Amino acid sequence: MSRYRFLDAAGLIFLGVVLAMAVLVPASNLLLPPDSALHVSDYLVPLLGKYLAFAMLALALDLVWGYCGILSLGHGAFFALGGYAMGMYLMRQIGPRGVYGNPVLPDFMVFLNWQELPWFWLGFDQFWFAALMAILVPGALAFCFGWFAFRSRVTGVYLSIITQAMTFALMLAFFRNDMGFGGNNGLTDFKEILGFSVQAPETRAALFAATAVALALSYLLCRWVVTSKLGKVVVAVRDAESRTRFIGYRVENYKLLVFTLSAMLAGVAGALYVPQVGIINPSEFAPANSIEAVIWVAVGGRGTLLGAALGAFLVNAGKTWFTGVLPDLWLFALGGLFVATTLLIPKGVVGAVTDLLGVRRKSELPAAQSIVAAAKSPAE
Amino acid sequence: MVIGGRTTNALLYLDNVSVTFDGFRALNGLSLSIDHAEMRAIIGPNGAGKTTMMDVITGKTRPNSGEAVFEASHDLTRLDEAAIAELGIGRKFQTPTVFEMHTVEDNILLALKTDRRPFPVLFSRRTPPEKERIDALLERVRLTGHRHRLAGELSHGQKQWLEIGMLLAQEPKLLLVDEPAAGMTDQETADTADLLREIAKTRSVVVVEHDMTFVRDLGVKVTCLHEGSVLAEGSLDAVSSNERVIEVYLGR
Asked: Which residues form the ABC transporter domain (chain B) (predicted)?
């Protein structure tokens, strides 16, 4: 069964494309002359890198929603927390080059008349610590949240609503100046990452490549999880939760594990996103962001991983184009896209393509052969 | 163990169990005892409390009062569904509930008696003994030829059997089976009775059923429930000639 093979043909193609991008996009940007037709501009590199980070967030969301049936409308919170962890590191790297020239305190703290660094900023001058926190903080929040929610058997729309409330509460908290995360303005004016200028094309190319590699690794990790026996239990939870319970599985522990893992992945995505866009502020916690991520997954096809990543890429590319041409109409277009997807291709782009191939398979190939076999021989 | 002032060796022992939902007494002082390797048929009109009784035994519903004891040592009223399943109580639902998006084989695999904790499950691989168990179980519920099909594609009767197969895969000491013959053809019904009788040679089975022909096929002790408590208990002939049973359930 192709569904349970660790890597099927489609997965290999996806990995191939992502890893090829990791090499070709930076190479084209740095090596080709700007007037070449194949040159990827300095503007495009971080933009594509941003899409890749979103694709990682979409993978994380698909893991909980597509496979475990937990519709999280607050995954943007985990993404933003990862982003803040990275942002704090980047702030500390500014050092005396800030407007106020304080070697330890970020500008906004000097502005607030703070005398010393709050305890929760300690350690963020070290990259490894910030990287660790970008994973652990979202993971810890998801663990605590899930511990109570899943144990109390909060499911369905109620769970979605409290995830939404969680991200909204965090947004309000991060907007406050005395939270110590730069309030309204967030964290920005970054100078260096690991000693390299964040503005330099080489650094941006490296960040892009790192994001592409991280996306490929996340895909492998998610794929490993969903093709394991745990993956089967998780799908069983999605489709028949009480049956799974009566067979003896502690459903809440499975949900907790998948939810926490997913939050950690989202955190890594956020940490890769921030140095490429150059800012992190509380609006990243906005509920609308989390809902948008759900739309990416729905458009691409939930429960397929590939579809989630593809959806993130397609919808965001559409957004970039649309907001350039008709900025006021983007939200209508996004809403329309969601409605159209739900009505016309409920299984998303990947689901629709698979179904098409499945029809071919039934008419042309013995039923035992997999969808992948059909995908391999499109010319026949 | 001493329960309610008396000693019991029963596998399952319910004593004076009451459950109230919003003022409605679903169970009203129900007492029931199932022995090792005993099969028992439970009959009774709708609303008699048959499903609620199963809910209490499997940990889905907490009784307001009374005791539910398994193997004379486990208090079922304090355990959750997963813990009770691990003790060795398996449950088949009234409407067949299988994992429709999984293959027939994977349905059995997930039900096999193994470590249920997430991390061991994440790293587990299918072992040769597990494969043999799966093969044997599929053979027993006659689904060998369908093992690679999605469970959702099976017929109603096949789903019922798959669910029984999943129950057996758990290796339970007690099986609770809710209307196994519902929606089956006559032949399937007869086969199901055979299968349950065979299972009952080594395990205890509680069957809730409306189909009196099926109950007669089983040929076991019958308990008739009415308004949340036991109305009559004994052989099918004795119970079905009971005046009160005829009045409330069988009809004249």
From this structure: 12-252
